[in-house]
Amino acid sequence: MISSFSAVAVQVAVLFILISIGFICSKKNIFDEHTIKHLTNFILYFVTPTVVINSFNRDYDPLLVKKLLISVGCGALLHFLSIVLSFILIHDKDKAKQAVLRYGIIFSNCGYMALPLQNALLGTEGIFLGTAYIAVFNLLTWTFGLVLMSGDVKEISIKKVFINPGIIGIVTGLIIFLTPIKLPVIIASPIQHLANLNTPLPMFVIGYYLAQITTLAVLKDFKLVLGIFIRLVLCPLAALGILYFMGIRDNILPAMVIAVSAPSAANTTMFAAKYEKDTQTAVTMVAIGTLFSILTMPLVVSAAIALCNF
User: Fold this and answer.
1) CA 222 to CA 189: how far, in whole Å?
2) Partners of 108 in the beta sheet?
3) Rounded CA separation 29/19 (Å)
4) Per-residue pLDDT at 116
5) Ranges under pLDDT 70 in the chain
6) Alpha-carbon distance 301 to 297, whole Å?
7) I need a labelling partner for 106 at 20 to 30 A (CA). Which of 187, 197, 232, 297 fits?
8) pLDDT 10s digits, 23-32
């Protein structure tokens, strides 16, 4: 357990150093809102899809297919668990705030925060399995998530559900993995270089948003603190317990726990702004949650890695 914690803590510390660079760049006005907006789009449209494609650019392995399918099922189960917990535990007279808190609990930062950690601890197989969670995330965030934030089922768009960078990356990767098609070096090499940016660039973005926090007085808001606690502690521990007793082991267990232990998804703030919900609560939940996840993720993830040996 101690060795597992040390390994995870070292990787989280590396991410924290990168986050600190983003924080400093924000304070020194090297990064501004305009820069971060374009950097986020670059990560979304180029970096994240290439990470997925790069992890799938391998020889077909029926065992990996089995693991991937199990991971999809686990991802769906864990999202359902988060939905249940958010609706049971979060109630507020301010419906705009309630929607934001529930969304932030249900949807974790399974891309920006989880993928770099899955890669560092589990290698490309960690990313391979992590994409299963991301696939479920994408499907739900553009359906259930849209309705939750907008309050209108008409907001659901088939185009948004199936034609977005995450899904395109996963589908492309699956085609490469499941068929004899393999990327030539002239294409695989640039994809590898772009994929390598998935660790530093998202951390810089997170550092920027952390720099926007000017006071911790927001922690006096009990509902906000409760939402962050559910996202960072209750959901991951419940997920770990359920998956363990279901017999989930190997790299699947830590890969799924890493995904579910991440702080609230960055698009919590984007959806809140788009649908005129409580944007301040959204920004604070993402930023403060990210800050405290530096402490909670090593504890939960190291427990998952240790339990894999039992």
Assistant:
1) 49
2) 264
3) 15
4) 86
5) 1-4, 310
6) 6
7) 197
8) 999 999 999 9
